[in-house]
Amino acid sequence: MTYDPSVAIPTLVGSALSCFATSCVLLAWMCYGQGKRSFRYALVLNLTFAEWVNTLNNTISGTIAVLNKGYLQPGGACTLNGWVGQLSVQASDFSILAIALVTLLTIKLKTYILNASFDKKILICLAVWAVPLATSTTAVAMKVMEPVSGNWCWISAEKTKLRYALTHGWRFGIIIITICIYVYVFIYMRKRLSYLQETSRTFSYDYGRDLHDLSAMASPPANTDFKDGSRTERMLVDEENPGPLRTTSAPPKSKSKLLGVNTGLSVASSSFPSPSSPLPPPSPAGPRRRKRSQSKSVEREIWRMLLLNAYPIMYVILWMPGIVNRIVEATGHQYKWLQIMQCSTQYIGLANALTYGFKEHSRDFAIWIESLNHHR
């Protein structure tokens, strides 16, 4: 295979940068993340580990390829490189799908996701590796791993149908499903944001908690008919800022679903013999300022939820040149500019670390940098 430094070197640089970035995230987890048990964090960590394995594998083979002017020797090491590459890159693909699906189920307030046990989270993370393990082992068993275009070994270019059956077909499906989920989540959360901004003028909510760490869901009680003509009303209790109870009529059922984010409120049902029952006066401590700050907090937390789907967009964009190049190669053509652009796939790990990993540990990194400054 002809050695082209304009392709090999940028590809190696991308692999090395992604490997370094994901290594930093994993080190941050080892130092600061032991107490984090959220589902979001588990999925991000699973994705980061898959990217780290893939980029480390490609960095090693890429270094050898550049030093040997593009030559990678077929054999056991090449087969191992191809097996690890297939396993890890497809695990990254399925991690993206898992993140999209869990995000969708979270905003829909599915209790089996909201209240998932630690063991269930581990099982879901391990399930991400099931298909990749099967496809990579199948390719090795068929003895089709050999040096290919790029800095690594993989399924022979002559086995086009096998490539699509074991890798490309899965990836195309994941990309399509992820885009559909992202569009739905974006529209749904925009509607929720609009409604919560409207209701924040009436209700007091606490959005300070992490939307993804929901541990329980308060379901509105069914309306009950009373002989004395009393009506069912809902009392909203701010658990973190307790004060006099405020009673309000329950919102419509269709809109109450949109209220299902983590509000930090206890929702209770109570019957009152008379609509004019006296209630303690509300606290005068700056309700308007509180409503404005909570409205901003609503927007910040909801867009933080959307951030969990921001990475799949980068994933799709960075994979497009590689996908197009593979389609072109399958037709028997090759274009140098497209091969150069294909190196963008090696920057996916870097995008992952910047979008998710460093976001998760931004406060930890700030504390670490501050401690270094104090020791000077």
TrEMBL record:
The chain crosses the membrane at residues 12-32, 44-67, 87-109, 121-142, 170-189, 302-320. It comes from the Eukaryota. One of its GO terms (molecular function) is G protein-coupled receptor activity. It holds the Pfam family Git3. The keyword Transmembrane applies. Residues 9-194 form the Glucose receptor Git3-like N-terminal domain. Keywords: Membrane, Receptor, Transmembrane, Transmembrane helix. Coiled coil: none annotated. It comes from Botryosphaeria dothidea. It is found in: Membrane. GO terms for cellular component: plasma membrane. InterPro entries: Glucose_rcpt_Git3-like_N. Its main location: membrane. Residues 235-296 are annotated as: Disordered. GO terms for biological process: adenylate cyclase-activating G protein-coupled receptor signaling pathway. It is a multi-pass membrane protein. This is Glucose receptor Git3. SUPFAM superfamilies: Family A G protein-coupled receptor-like (SSF81321). Residues 275-285 have a biased composition (Pro residues).
